[in-house]
Amino acid sequence: MQHSLDYHPPRLSETQLNLLCKQVCDAAEYMADEQILCLADHLHDALRARRQMRGKVHHRLEERLCHDSGQHFPF
Question: What is the DSSP string of the chain?
């Protein structure tokens, strides 16, 4: 069984993303400023957590694959 390091999480299509953006913007019309900022903070936290996890995974892969050779993982 061949393993691929090219993993990409499922993504919304362009149409789905546009619809979601429209729905969020429509909902924002009924939200207080603090609620909009709270939503933005949650999305930012989700992005930060993803990037942190990717960094940890990359670091672990680099350690396991290149521990003794001194070479760096190519990506």
Answer: ----S--------HHHHHHHHHHHHHHHTTS-HHHHHHHHHHHHHHHHHHHHHHHHHHHHHHHHHHTTT-PPP--
pLDDT digits (tens, 9 = 90+) for 37-46: 999 999 999 9
* Euclidean distance between CA atoms 17 and 5, whole angstroms: 26
Q: Which two tokens stand for residue 72?
A: 């760096």
Would the pTM of this model clear 0.70, i.e. be above it?
no
Separation CA 63–CA 69 (nearest Å): 10
The whole-angstrom separation of Cα 69 and Cα 9 is: 31
Q: How far is CA 48 from its chain centroid?
A: 7
